[in-house]
Amino acid sequence: MSAPRRLTLAAVTVASVMCVYFLYDNLEPSLALSWTHFNRASSWSSEILEPLTSEPRRHSNRTSPAPSPSPAHARNEPTPSRKNILAKPTESPFIGDSYASQNVTPLTECPDGIRSLVAESDFAQLFLGNVPVLQWLTHATPDEYRRLSRYAGANGWGGLSYQTLSDALAYLNSSANAVMFDDWKRRADSSGCVRCAVVGNGGILKDSKKGKEIDGHHYVFRTNGAIVAGFEEDVGFRTTHYTFSTNTLMNSMASYASAGFRGPPKSQETRYVFLPDHDRDYLLMKAAALRTPVEQGRDRGKDPAKYFGKNVTSTQLKMYHPDFIRYIRNRFLPSRTLKTKHRNIYRPSTGATMLLAALHTCDRVSAYGFMTPQFKKYSDHYYDRKYRPVGFFINHDLKLEMNLWQRLHNAGLITLYMRP
Ligand SMILES: *[C@@H]1O[C@H](CO)[C@@H](O)[C@H](O)[C@H]1NC(C)=O
Ligand SMILES: *[C@@H]1O[C@H](CO)[C@@H](O)[C@H](O)[C@H]1NC(C)=O
Ligand SMILES: *[C@@H]1O[C@H](CO)[C@@H](O)[C@H](O)[C@H]1NC(C)=O
Hints:
Blueprint: H1 3-26, H2 37-54, H3 80-85, H4 114-118, H5 142-148, H6 162-169, H7 184-187, E1 195-199, H8 211-215, E2 219-223, H9 232-235, E3 241-244, H10 246-255, E4 271-274, H11 279-290, H12 305-308, E5 317-319, H13 322-331, H14 350-361, E6 364-368, H15 398-410, E7 415-416
Parallel strand pairs: 1-2, 1-6, 2-3, 3-4, 4-5, 6-7
Helix pairs in contact: 6-11
Bound molecules: 2-acetamido-2-deoxy-beta-D-glucopyranose (NAG) (3 copies).
The site of one 2-acetamido-2-deoxy-beta-D-glucopyranose has 4 residues, from loops.
């Protein structure tokens, strides 16, 4: 090959890699969906989830055989146990439908909370009450590192050095880091149930006048470009849990500055819940805990006070466990994208992760600003100055998410805000 030709080829290769990287890195659409997708989605779901129906309990246990490490990746072999049980091969090691299990002491004795309702619902087979939602100091062990290094991005610790991991999780060493609602005792009321409002940024909230209702919950979850100032009547003003990845936060600061986004909400009751999909998240989390600039990597030198305020302490920081992200991907949002070459960049959206985390930790969940079948009637965000259609990108499956919200609502597990 001649030198100029080689150069051209190299340029084309770099350009296409950058193109995918751009997609992965820049797009975090808001929360949206469509109906026709439902059948497609559910047939694919039943395909990958069928094994659970035949033997559900097995998967709630770490004792189930872990997938073999990566060379088998491309071979699409079923795990040994499944080979015996199922005629239909389903799971490649990429999927990894086996998770750590932890003893969860229920926070409340809420008689009709989500956990008791789920057992009677269509979701009973999928739902793992003992999957770790959050990760903290205890999880950073060499064994766990070996197990989770098989999975890339938000699904594991692939691409993350043990040093970076353990240096960061070392700061999540208080009991507050290990539970979603570390201040529940202070808030508990006679109902005995934890009530959560989970607020997406969808245009359906504009002129909704839902602010008071949202703020009336024990906990209020928000994500990404959650602009509160000026929109309190529609979206409320409290934030107890702010969910983001470092990437989506930086993108939100850039993209929504003109709409008024000045960074995550800051208040004494606010907790910052990282969705780690890159070593950037571990590095920023450590910097926030230490109140020092980010040491290395792409965000080197950034001051965490800019995002979390000067007063932030490590007890306000939490981080989703990669098993939880992989679990919700595999069982609740198994997009068809997982069967394509884009499978590595697909993950549940930040908003979906936040809502499903609430489903696994709250007794009651009201969801606002999430995509509904009428999404075309509303702008992408409640703060858009003029109508912008919801954007769909390959790294998320917003229509599958929309269908899931409908199914959870119809099952009585969440109350989804939908306008008549
Ligand atoms: C799950 O783990 C527990 C504790 O390690 C063990 O007693 C139990 O037999 C396991 N269950 C299954 C189905 O493997
Ligand atoms: C957590 O780690 C920090 C830094 O090493 C230490 O100062 C603090 O005492 C630890 N807290 C707990 C509860 O162990
Ligand atoms: C930090 O905390 C102090 C004392 O509680 C408070 O007066 C101050 O406003 C806080 N600063 C910020 C930036 O939140």
